[in-house]
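Escalation from tier 1.

The customer reports that the assembly of two entities below gives different structure tokens on two consecutive runs. Tier 1 could not reproduce it. I'm attaching the input and our single run for tier 2 to review.
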Amino acid sequence: MRIDNLQYSNWSEKIFRQMREGGVDAVHVTIAYHENFRETVLNFEQWNRWFERFPELIFKGHWASDVDTARETGRTAIFFGFQNPSPIEDDIGLVEIVHTLGARFMQLTYNNQSLLATGCYESEDAGITRMGRQVIKEMNRVGLVVDMSHSADRSTIEAADISQRPIAITHANPHDWAPALRNKKDDVIRAVTENGGMLGFSLYPHHLKHKSDCSAKSFCEMIARCADRYGVAHLGIGSDLCQDQPDSVVEWMRVGRWSKEIDYGEGSAELPGFPPMPSWFRDNRDFGNVETGLSAVGMAPEEIAAVMGDNWHRFYTENFTPRG
Amino acid sequence: MRIDNLQYSNWSEKIFRQMREGGVDAVHVTIAYHENFRETVLNFEQWNRWFERFPELIFKGHWASDVDTARETGRTAIFFGFQNPSPIEDDIGLVEIVHTLGARFMQLTYNNQSLLATGCYESEDAGITRMGRQVIKEMNRVGLVVDMSHSADRSTIEAADISQRPIAITHANPHDWAPALRNKKDDVIRAVTENGGMLGFSLYPHHLKHKSDCSAKSFCEMIARCADRYGVAHLGIGSDLCQDQPDSVVEWMRVGRWSKEIDYGEGSAELPGFPPMPSWFRDNRDFGNVETGLSAVGMAPEEIAAVMGDNWHRFYTENFTPRG
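Tier 1 run:
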């Protein structure tokens, strides 16, 4: 079973076919960065059109069982998530509404302060806000997973503690392997995994040691080390694959409507766009290279299966349904 | 089995308890008159709060099988509908979105011209519009029922013919029994029922012969006559019960935001508010009186069961699911 728990590509039939070539049973796709509710609904609508157009390749994923259906029917189940709480605006009632529409993950922040928590690019992190506490409780009730991939340390640790259900860092790597601002320090990863949560390993070059030149060996050794440190049951893939996107999209991700000035985020004035992917992970067709790499660094077949999809499958089973 | 296929009350625990007292297994409730998409979502949210608060009385109905669940668990399944296409604005993609959120009926018009068709208060009826044809096709695809209760004659007949699935007049009576503007002429009812559609009988006094003074006998004789004329399989109840509403609500229904002048609709300057209900049908507790009345006019038990709920149940089974 292969589950990639974070992608944001410029979707096309080509990419959906590559998911099939790569044997990817489920993908969690981002459908909002800065969109408000109505704009996010337009993105749900766009996906409905793709589902109608390519029913032999993809379908909308609601529950863990849809991953099994995907395997049985040779298709890819698409699960939805937001990288910002902007889709729920200031309205807690929208938490259940977006879950009904299919959202399964929501970051409490992108890079900036949100109504709920603090993003990792802010200089001060005041932790989870008053509304944040209410929204976490409501997310727990309906089965919308708290994702802290882009959040600041204190906010993340507090979210892991406040949440009554496990939370996730869907796409990031350990900071002590690649000291990017977006990668996570040991105590943050511990807070998430010790509360039953998940860490999804990112293949976005800015999150990799030596960026685009990162070797498969280095990436897989890092995963093996995390398995020893945090327990293999808490690890999965969240590739952060942003395939075929024009550079205007990374600008939308970074700047949205919140600034009139350019903010390069993880990039720079010299490298403002998407960096090239590592040679051994071009796109959805290359998950086999990760499996081979994990085997080469000595991980057992059942451990590899856990990281490549079984752990996310278990997490989906336990965390997407409303609380009884 | 008892299904009331149209109510719009000032919802409260009292009314939900009266549904249980009256043995009502399912109610189709109106959640939009003139609301745009975002405002309609607020109404879905309000219902989510009621479902959370009164789980022992009501729950959200999605499919016909939920009516059976309601009977088995002693609760009432609530199905959603709109009396206007205003919730989908000018966006055909919202048809699937509102169905996902739980909408199962949508009127193509309220009393006025809409983007889709003509309402029964307009002087000219140009039939189904360009967008109307597209939206009917999309409603057929996703399982959102076309409701023409407030539409003009030509528009209704065209909708019945254009639609690839049966349509409904959820709440109205025959015009030759009570010649209200909102009641339906013989050729209109025939167009709907001959295409497999349903007529739901209204108990709103403006739709009754002698209004609030209408007798149960007259109402039930009218139903028996319709059974002979259109076939009992196409008949149900759509009481149009508007319980405990302040008069400001009937003003919203009639005027919305489309006029600065008061429009009294079916009322008048002398009687601007909701008229009193007939003594034998006060509210949800009195469906037994309708059954007794139908028996008194000679209808057989299985015919009565068909009208009181079995027909709507069959209609739900056939028309709420997406087309395979």
